[in-house]
């Protein structure tokens, strides 16, 4: 049997053992417990427990309607969270400020209540207050309107933040709507794709 150990103590070490069964077994802890087995016969990987996913992710949404001023770039008031694995979304500033540097995927989804006079709508993803991604729709609508924007941002893991912004162009105001149905409420979500 051959053994490879990493770490400074027996309690933190990682032990990799190969025996005559032809299987590779990964054990952890001072009293080794099998964490992973790779079969030498069929190359199957067997986990002793389900994988714990460490990827940071969040979804924030509007708990109430927000009236938008005509032709004005506006931060979406997203004052509630569906989930936030690392508590990095601020429901007072409506910003997501991750503490791991890397590349993040974001989705902005807006639900607008229109009266027919707003002819252009923009759904945006901003980094540090500057719009990086946006989608634009140019037509007049007299009811509820749905639009989304997706994109990736690099965030430095300390001060960089992302936020959802919206804008309507026309002759009157419109409202960013929280309908109470999770599939059709204004929301901003994202997750880490790759750490830097």
How many domains is the backbone divided into?
Answer: 2
The DSSP helix count reads: 0
User: Can you give the mean pLDDT?
Assistant: 79
Strand-pairing-aware structural class = mainly beta
Distance between the termini: 38 Å
Give the ordered list of helices and strands.
EEEEEEEEEEEEEEEEEE
The coarse overall form would be: elongated
The Cα radius of gyration reads 24 Å
Quick structural summary:
The protein is mostly beta strands. Helices cover 0% and strands 55% of the residues.
Q: What's the topology here?
A:
Elements lengths: L1 E5 L7 E5 L5 E5 L4 E6 L6 E3 L9 E5 L4 E3 L5 E2 L4 E5 L4 E2 L4 E2 L5 E12 L4 E10 L2 E9 L5 E12 L6 E9 L3 E3 L10 E9 L1
Antiparallel strand pairs: 1-2, 2-3, 3-4, 4-5, 6-9, 6-18, 7-17, 8-16, 10-11, 12-15, 12-17, 12-18, 13-14, 13-16
Descriptive account of the structure:
The chain is an all-beta fold. It has two domains: 2-47, no CATH class; 57-195, Jelly Rolls (Sandwich), CATH 2.60.120. The chain has no helices and 18 strands. The strands form four sheets. Strands 6, 7, 9, 12, 15, 17 and 18 form a seven-stranded antiparallel beta sheet that branches. Strand 3 (24-28) and strand 4 form a beta hairpin. The protein is elongated and about 75 Å long. The relative contact order is 0.22. The model has no long low-confidence stretch (mean pLDDT 79).
Supply the key terms.
mainly beta, 7-stranded antiparallel beta sheet, 5-stranded antiparallel beta sheet, 55% strand
